[in-house]
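2024-03-11 09:14:02 INFO queue: dequeued item Bet v I/Major latex protein domain-containing protein, len=159
2024-03-11 09:14:02 INFO validating residues
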Amino acid sequence: MVLSGKLITELGIKTPAERFYKLFAEELHEVQVHCERVHHTKLHEGEDWHHTDTVKHWTYVIDGEVHTSYDSVEEVDEENKKNSWKLFGGDIGKHYKVFKLTLQVTDKADDGTAVAKWTIEYEKINEDIDPPNGWMDYLNQCTRDVDAHLSKARAARKD
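2024-03-11 09:14:37 INFO prediction written
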């Protein structure tokens, strides 16, 4: 049985790529305001949410259960609107040796819509651990929540 793998999901969003990316690149602490499944976030180490030396602690719901983990920024590629985070500790550390989460957002059309692409690269600690399929549903729902909130705010500004 294979211990490592990669899962990818792409979702069309109404929010322009630049704005959606900005939330995750510069306003990550706001995610808990927009996503129902994110219960709590806090800085664990460091003073800046987006610095590579900073560690954040997350509490979230996947498959109806509350989970915790830590993350640190691994890669920032502003030009391509792509960020990666290394997740570890908490429930992640119980099941995975490696867990890397990547978001890339690209403009889709001239109408201001975009595509959010999430990639999970993982290595399980043993064969008995299931792939992180629940994370795909979690990321899809969080993306929809963030997109709905940002789209609503954008529409309100146009009024």
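2024-03-11 09:14:37 INFO annotate: The chain has four helices and seven strands.
2024-03-11 09:14:38 INFO item closed
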